[in-house]
User: Fold these one by one.
Assistant:
Number 1:
Amino acid sequence: MIKPWPIIESTKGPDMGLFCIRVNRCRSPRTGQEHDFYVIDSPNWVQIIPITSEDRLVMIRQYRHGCARIFLELPGGLIDKGDLSPHQTAKRELLEETGYLAEDLSLLTRVYPQPAVLNTIGLTYLARGVKRIAGPELDVAEDIEVCLLELQRIPDMIRSGEINHGQTVMALGLYLLLNT
């Protein structure tokens, strides 16, 4: 039976602002040997599947520096320390990035995107009947284009690779699985 590995020692590494790196020295419960594991400590995040009353999906195009590419993805962002709840973060991020307001917002799923090295939890919310009430209010380090897409096009866009942002594919795949 698999058992948790006890942490013998934990050493904080560099603080990069958005994330910190930690080295955990752990003991294998099976062999008793000790090994170092690197953990990236970063804030939890939310993403939103916003659907209008006309069954159009509100998505964004955004340049991502890690891959040096523009991605078509769901709106979302990090949960700030000052946020009262992830639910509040989801409403705030949707409004800031797209100008759309979510009246009906519910948690769809909670995932661990890369548990081998990240301790982060991602929460995906479903927002039905969203309405545009303003323009986006972007951070100074964001450039975002808001896109409205027919919901029925999404499976083909995922299959063709037009939508290939991992978190977005996971969330939309789950949504389609549960709603078709």
Note: The chain has a mean pLDDT of 95.
Number 2:
Amino acid sequence: MKVYIEVTTWFKRFTGGNASLELEISEGTPVVEAVSSAGIPKEEIGFITVIKDNENKIVDDQYILTDGDRLKVYPAIIGG
């Protein structure tokens, strides 16, 4: 199944400069495993959201992904 990951500028250094990725994952994969497989270190993740029913919801690390999920990964430190 496929999921889609969007990252902030902070994480582009782990994704080869890409702001978005498409991943092929196995059914039952937790969100943290999918994000880690994209090269993003768990210790740098602040939180992850999943867009469901046009709503962007924060999920925990063990949230089980479903086909077509769209994720957004935010760093532990966000400044301005």
Note: The chain has one helix and five strands.
